[in-house]
Amino acid sequence: MSTKKLCIVGGILLVFQIVAFLVGGLIAPAPTTAVPYMSVKCVDVRKNHHKTRWLVPWGPNKCDKIRDIEEAIPREIEANDIVFSVHIPLPSMEMSPWFQFMLFILQLDIAFKLNNQIRENAEVSMDVSLGYRDDMFSEWTEMAHERVPRKLKCTFTSPKVGHLYC
């Protein structure tokens, strides 16, 4: 191959590479996005929490909800009866089977109270389940389940009631 033909082939390949780079950078969707979800506090009133039951925050079979933990006290709802439920995706969106991974970061907002102080190295135990269903009417299938203990790291510089320190 002559030098002239080699330069033409190399130039064409370079143009294709530049076009492919521009298509990937300008047209293709972002590889990862962050979508914040706020959990709904559902009440699981069953006495034995051993059988799997999915508490859906919305829809025809939605769960019994409470707005905040203060509402649970007069109703005599224990901490183990409160389930933080998140439904992904939001009702107006659709989930693609092409998702490669999902990363969930759980942020607990624990307000300081004088009559309920948090001791040093307090531990929160979470019973986490991940389930899916293929359409709105099929049964839920459990994909993963884990019991996870986590230590709270709270720094109280000057404790004030209602402030978030953890």
UniProtKB/TrEMBL annotation:
Pfam families: WLS_GOLD (PF21883)
Residues of the Wntless GOLD domain: 40-160
GO CC annotations on file: endomembrane system; organelle membrane
Classification via InterPro entries: WLS_GOLD, Wntless
Coiled-coil intervals, chain numbering: none
A biological process term (GO) from this entry: intracellular protein transport
Sample GO molecular function, one term: Wnt-protein binding
Name of the protein in question: Integral membrane protein GPR177
Organism: Cricetulus griseus (Chinese hamster)
